[in-house]
Each structure stands twice: as structure tokens, then as C-alpha cells.
Amino acid sequence: MTDKISNEQKYKYQEPAPVHKGEPNPFESMMARFDKAAEILNLEQGVYEYLQKPVKQVIVSIPIQMDNGEIKVFEGYRVIHDNILGPSKGGIRYSPDVTLDEVKALASWMTWKCAIANIPFGGAKGAVKCDPSKLSKVELEKITRRYTANLFSVFGPDTDIPAPDMNTNEQTMAWIMDTYSMHAQRTETAVVTGKPLIIGGSLGRVEATGRGVMITTLEALKKLGLSPEDVTVVVQGFGNVGSISAKLLKEQGCKIIGISDISGGYCNSNGIDIDSAIEYVKNNKTLEGGNFGEPVTNEELLELECDVLAPCAKEDQILEDNARNIKAKLIVEGANGPTSADADDILRDKGIMVIPDILANAGGVTVSYFEWVQNRLGYYWDIDDVNRRHDRMMREAFDNVYDTASRYKTTMRLGAYIYAIDKVSRTLLLRGIYG
Ligand code: GLU
Known about the structure:
Bound molecules: glutamic acid
Number of strands: 12
Order of helices and strands: HHHEEEHEHEHHEHEEHEHEHEHEHHHH
Helix content: 40-55%
CATH class of the domain at 208-360: Alpha Beta
Distance between the termini: 61 Å
CATH architecture of the domain at 208-360: 3-Layer(aba) Sandwich
Strand content: 15-25%
Low-confidence stretches: 15-21
Structural class: alpha/beta
CATH superfamily of the domain at 208-360: NAD(P)-binding Rossmann-like Domain
Largest sheet: 7 strands, mixed
Number of helices: 16
Strand order of the largest sheet: 9-8-7-6-10-11-12
Mean pLDDT: 94
């Protein structure tokens, strides 16, 4: 084997990887639910077509000079699904295998999520195809700044407001805020949310998605006639969403008997000490090698005997193949799209209640909205104010979805889609079509 690449190979055009190789596709998954809800609502054909497609899809090329002096070109995306309820809102993810289809699905999910959370935003999502674990901090900063500069005319506090998502964090948002501000020649804090506190972030934003998972779980447990002290919980994923959901549910009296991350999972019927697991991950990056209980694979973790299962890792974890083996009574989707559309019916037939992603993880964008409001007011709330408003809005969102599902005699998932699509389509018709 030689590392030298012949010129012929070196310059050969590489076909982009197919969008999906027979694997579950998040856009198709989203559309399957959208279609069912549209049918129930008897949505006008033109409105269906409007809402089915994103209003804008931008692909940008991001050349940067790597630490070793080489130039490398990355690909970035920003998809605006719509601006019907207000400026579009949604995170940016860094991932080596992200596709435009995935970003399109995630952008539509943001539209439905904002409608359910009752916040005045449309939906968007962005991504850069890169592997952050293989990049230095300087390279990540360059990618972030060039991506932002390329999208300067798309982003804006009144047009499109990014936020963190998979593999991006407060530091990434600080670079976005600074790059945008440099181009605008003024400090524009409200252009991005999820910023560090010191430059206009909101108290409670880091914990918000996990807090929303906790609040919606408690509301669902009430409906199921279960009290938190009597339930066992398994959480898949131990990033920001998973770890905080586990911590807050434990504080409410639940027993967390299973946790996992990319390195694998652990189960412990006596309950896992979440605070020390969080501390462990701070020092060791992953759960690997920790003494939390019996090791299990991520697949086994999902099928553990428990009352509540919270998939907080990534898309397409609960599929047709394993949905049948799930034993939880309640699934709370902290991640976006963890359940494929095929698995929905199996879970319904098994009588498992599912709090869908567009409701369960809406706490994050709700506090993003608070951050944007505070930036525009120039006045900052204390943590009690943030949490009180968040908890009230999440309970209201839960009730709206629950009531819709009951009215249409359907699942919480379809109830959520019906509620959101009805609201967005009625707003669209009120605003009317220009042109
Ligand atoms: N990325 C988060 C989500 O999927 C937050 C988006 C935001 O705060 O704008 O909901």
C-alpha cells in the first residue's frame, strides 16, 4: 500500500454518497407523518404543496486553511422551511455524514416545533459536513466564521436565527455572533441563540431541552396515573439533552436505571448516580470505563425493562425491527427523529405512549426564544423567571397536543402534527399568498 495518490485518482470526480442507501431517511419519516396529518385535516392541495417544501435551501462551500497549511473545502447547508409564524429558527449541526435531506427534515420539524411551543418563529436548520473530533479549535473557528460569512445575507435577528445542535455549542454561537456583528458593523446579539451568558445568552438555556423533557414526562406520567417516585427510566444519549434530562428526572424522584453514549451503555436496577456520571464524562469525555452498572450495548439498552424510555441521542434509533421489543410504557423523544415512521404503528399497537420530539424537546427553542426576547429588550431575567415561563409554556404545549390527540382519537405524535399543521396553515391563509 502506498499513501501516494496518482494524479489520475487524485483529480477523479467523486460522486457524492447517495442520500440514503436503503437506510431510514429522516425526510421520508417526517413526510409520512405530515401526510397522515394533512389527510386528517383535509388540507387544501396548494397549502399541502406549500408546506411540504422548504422555501429556501442554500449550499455553501467552506474553504479553510488547515493547521498543516493545506486548504480543505467543507460543505455547509442552511434550509429555511418557512417564515409563516415569524423569522425562521433552528440549530446548526456539525456531522461527517449529514445530508441535505436530513437538514430538510430537521428544518420542517423546527416549523412544527415552534408552532407547538407557541413561539413566533418559522423553521430552519443548518449543518456543516465535517467531523469535529478530527478538527482543532482553530480549524473549527475558521469553519464557523466562513460558514457564517457565506450566510450573512440569510441570517439576521428578523430573518433567520441559528442556535446550537449536534456537535456545536456556546463557543460556536459566540463565533457566529461575532462574525455576523463584524460584517454588520454593530454588535448584534439577537442574531443567534445559545450564546455564552456573558455575551447575551440566557440563564437556563443550556438546561432547557432537558428541562422540557422532564416537564413533559411529568405531565405524561400524570395522564398514565403514575407518580415519578414509582417509575424507572432509561436514557439513551448522555450529551447535553440526555444527561440533563436524567439529572432532572432523578431530582423529581425517578430511578434512572440505564444510561448510554456512543461508547456503550450501563444498566443498574438500584439506580445510577447521575451527578457522578456527569462528573465522569467531564473528566473522561465519554462514559467508557466508568463504574455505573452492568455494561449493555445501545441496542440492548432500548429494550430494557423500564417505565420510561428517553431516546436523547440521534435519529432512527427505534425502528420497525426493534420497536416490538420495547418494554417501556412511555417514550419521551429528547432527540430529533429517534423513531422511524414504520415504528409508530407498532408502538401504538403495543399501547406505548410516545411524547414526540416536536413536543418533548421544544424546551430548547422555547428558551432560545426567551434569549432573543431578552437580547431585543436589553433586559435580562433571573433563572426563576426563565424556568417559570418555560414550565408554563411546556405544560400548555403538552395540553394542546394531548387535547388534539384526544379530539382526533389518535396518537400524541399525530396530535402534535395536526395541531402544528393546522396552526401554520391557518396563519398562511390569513396572511394570504403574495403574487
Ligand atoms: N437545535 C435545537 C432544536 O432542535 C434548538 C433550536 C433553537 O434553539 O433554535 O430544537
